[in-house]
Amino acid sequence: MTVTLDDLPLRDDLRGQKPYGAPQVPLPIALNVNENTHPIPGAVADDIADAVAKSISGLNRYPDREFTELREAFASYLGHGLSPDQIWAANGSNEVLQHLLQAFGGPGRTGFGFAPTYSMYSLLVRGVGSEWIAGTRGPRYEITAEDAARQVREADPDVVFLCAPNNPTGTPLSIEVVEAVYEASRGIVIVDEAYFEFAPAEATSALTLLPGRERLVVSRTMSKAFAFAGARVGYLAADPAVIDALRLVRLPYHLSAVTQAAATAALKHSGEMLRMVDDIVQQRERISATLEALGYDPYPTWSNFVLFGGVDDPHETWTRLYDRGVLVRDIGIPGHLRVSAGTEDETSTFLDALAAIRD
Ligand SMILES: *Cc1c(COP(=O)(O)O)cnc(C)c1O
Of 106, 27, 43, 64, nearest to 322 (Cα)? Predict the structure, then answer.
């Protein structure tokens, strides 16, 4: 007899829930989870390999629990006058967000975000026994400062998630919204800047708002712009007191010596690592323009992906792209699909396949 979850003494609040599940299938062109489609440059990869190799001889010892060197590297990468005691890191920004919820959420508390938004927020919120409250967006998934503040005041959440720019829609979030939500809330306000490096040069980071706002947290990741998704490294900047709170909930030595070595080495090459970003932005612009020419409805985006409407049957289009070796994402918004910008060749294959389907 096959054992199911119903046979286990599972937490009641986890019954009936679905795990995060973007399909992982080996197609030649994977444009479904917003990865950086460009590999790490060879010389940088060699340097990272050297650093990792050096770390191996010390693996009999636990790693630096405070990942001091890595925190220094993140502080200097981010700039804005940040110091290492304002930096936290973990195995992907998903773990960073989980640490925040373990410290500031929990049973009897609530987490809030403007739907549709990153699907992991509600899963992480429920995972710590908190209640998820979904706010709403205006036309074209935009949010105004006034409306955002009103919704947050009404919901009165313990933790607010602001995804800037928003996944899965790509929608930019103005710094005024962050300010207004902070003023309207009493809880922790997390600005998830996972895609910030893909925003226009004139975009203002929420990092500029940190001074004097001890409940504000800005999270980032190496998964997207740094082409480091497989290494699992995310980080945040906040008041040093927030960092102290996170020390209460992290597992001891949560960042392995191997991870610390790899990430620190990669950050020494941030210039080269980020060189792909301009090309990805160019491919994104080409996708948006071509989608429009094909009669689809692409949304404004400050990320490395494009959400587009005007898809009569998303499942059908998804399947026909799949059959041509191209994996995109059906994010469950009727009439819409999402595609990540690929390399120039990958992007061409996607656009040609879509044009062929459209005919
Ligand atoms: C991809 C993504 C992340 C990053 O997740 P990691 O755990 O760092 O790989 C965080 N937030 C959003 C909105 C994302 O799309």
Answer: 27
Ligand 1 atom closest to Cα of 166? 13
> Does residue 234 have its Cβ closer than 6 Å to ligand 1?
yes
pLDDT in tens, 196-234: 999 999 999 999 999 999 999 999 999 999 999 999 999
Q: What is the pLDDT of residues 293-318, one digit of tens each?
A: 999 999 999 999 999 999 999 999 99
Residue closest via CA to ligand 1's atom 6 equals 92
Calculate the dihedral angle through the C-alpha atoms of 352, 328, 199, 175, rounding to the nearest 10 degrees: 140
Q: Which domains does the chain have, with CATH numbers?
A: 5-40+271-358 (3.90.1150.10), 42-269 (3.40.640.10)
The reported pTM is: 0.96
Cβ-proximal residues to 21 (8 Å cutoff; 6+ apart), any chain: none
Tokens of 100: 């925040």
